[in-house]
Design a protein that fits this description.
By secondary structure, the protein is an alpha/beta fold. Helices cover 37% and strands 13% of the residues. It has two domains: 235 residues, Aspartate Aminotransferase, domain 2 (3-Layer(aba) Sandwich), CATH 3.40.640; 128 residues, Aspartate Aminotransferase, domain 1 (Alpha-Beta Complex), CATH 3.90.1150. The strands form three sheets. An eight-stranded mixed β-sheet has the order 1-9-8-5-4-2-3-12, with helices on both faces. It has a three-stranded antiparallel β-sheet with strand order 7-6-10, with no helix packed on it. Strand 6 and strand 7 form a beta hairpin. Helix 2 packs across helix 8, helix 3 runs parallel beside helix 4 and helix 11 crosses helix 14.
Length: 389
């Protein structure tokens, strides 16, 4: 039986050559030639005033918390349906994550519930662009402007996606990207901070360089470098940047190939959705997605879990996603919930992610056939799919 893994990291063929070139240059620490190439590509592709590579998206979020001057007693509004780093970056600064519910269509933060969660302690809003589909950023930006709040976009899944033709990660004050091996453009581990407002750039450099003005020193703007502010070691090595630069060169091709797989799933499962057996992803017309993820919503948690087991039995590895942060042990200790969490609780229990990686094209007919067969086996005939379609 052919085994289909959930993810298989893609290589363009140029990564090892770049790594050898970085080694030959004698510079394997951060901020070498390949880091500069990656910075230039990100700034050119996204239009950010500054882009800085980091060793992870988590690091970019932690830098964002420092740049937003989040501290003890502050509150930061975010969805609960997200990875732990979204909250941890601000908890590390002593802040309280305030969780609000998600929309039933895109599974993004419900912008209509944000304003009710704002208090005099609120410092920032952190929208998470789930599955590379944009949150409603116009509404979020308007709320932030009215209440003088920072907006930090968690665009870990959002590179090459757009909201009304604006690249994700560049609409708020700051944006955090991920290049983890499960993302579209990868370096194994890795991330980047996108900075919209140029006046934050100098502070971001200092924070990223362990609180020193080392970057200014290397540009010849000071005759020595020293400790000038708070910070940590957020740079990736040149080996990581060299790998990433090869991926960035092929970003358009990678995105197109992923979209072809996503579209195959979407077309093939339309009839199954029409019968009420599953719900497919929904992308608003004003959003351009990057085919980061293809998920399905089963009618119930039990059917979802049965579906995953049945797929595993026929060699297809599918996975569920986040356990909501508000119901996690740490979330219960340090977080706060504003309003009901009906959608978060319901959809997190019904969602399953299907395999999506470059090379899967050659197996799609067999995978889709197995997926549809397992949907039929897992469903309960008396139950339909609830929620927006």
């Amino acid at each position: 039986m052919e085994i289909i893994p959930f993810n298989r990291p893609h290589m363009t063929g140029k990564e090892l050559q770049n790594i050898a070139q970085a080694h030959g240059s004698g510079h394997l620490a951060g901020d070498g030639q390949f880091t500069k190439l990656c910075h230039a590509w990100l700034e050119r592709t996204t239009g950010a005033s500054r882009a800085l590579l980091t060793h992870s998206c988590t690091a970019a979020l932690e830098m964002s918390a420092l740049l937003a001057r989040v501290g003890p007693g502050d509150e930061v509004i975010m969805p609960s349906f997200t990875f732990v780093s979204t909250a941890n970056a601000f908890v590390l600064r002593g802040a309280t994550p305030v969780f609000v519910d998600i929309r039933s269509d895109t599974l993004n933060i419900d912008e209509g519930k944000i304003e009710a969660a704002i208090t005099p302690r609120t410092k920032a809003i952190v929208p998470v662009h789930y599955a590379g589909v944009a949150c409603e950023m116009d509404a979020i930006a308007a709320i932030a402007e009215e209440h003088h709040l920072f907006v930090v976009e968690d665009a870990a899944q959002g590179l090459m996606s757009r909201y009304k033709d604006k690249p994700l990660g560049t609409i708020g004050n700051l944006g955090a990207l991920s290049f983890h091996e499960t993302k579209n453009i990868i370096s194994g581990e890795g991330g980047a901070l996108l900075i919209r407002d140029s006046d934050l750039g100098a502070r971001a450099e200092i924070i990223r360089e362990k609180g020193t003005n080392r970057s200014q020193f290397f540009r010849g703007h000071t005759d020595k470098y020293t400790w000038v502010g708070e910070g940590s070691s957020y740079l990736p090595s040149e080996v990581v940047a060299a790998f990433l630069a090869a991926q960035m060169d092929d970003a358009e091709v990678i995105t197109a190939r992923r979209k072809a797989i996503w579209d195959t799933y979407h077309r093939s499962l339309e009839t199954i959705e029409g019968a009420g057996f599953v719900r497919r992803p929904w992308v608003p017309g004003h959003c351009t997605h990057n085919a980061h993820m293809y998920y399905l919503l089963l009618p119930s948690r039990e059917e979802r879990d049965s579906f995953i087991r049945l797929l595993k039995d026929v060699g297809v590895h599918a996975v569920f996603h986040y356990v909501p942060l508000h119901s996690s042990p740490m979330g219960l200790r340090v977080g706060k919930v504003n309003g009901g969490m009906k959608n978060t609780d319901e959809f997190s229990g019904r969602l399953v992610r299907l395999p999506l990686w470059l090379g899967l094209e050659d197996h799609m007919s067999g995978v889709v056939e197995r997926v549809i067969d397992c949907i039929h086996q897992a469903r309960r005939p008396s139950r339909g799919v609830r929620g927006q379609g």
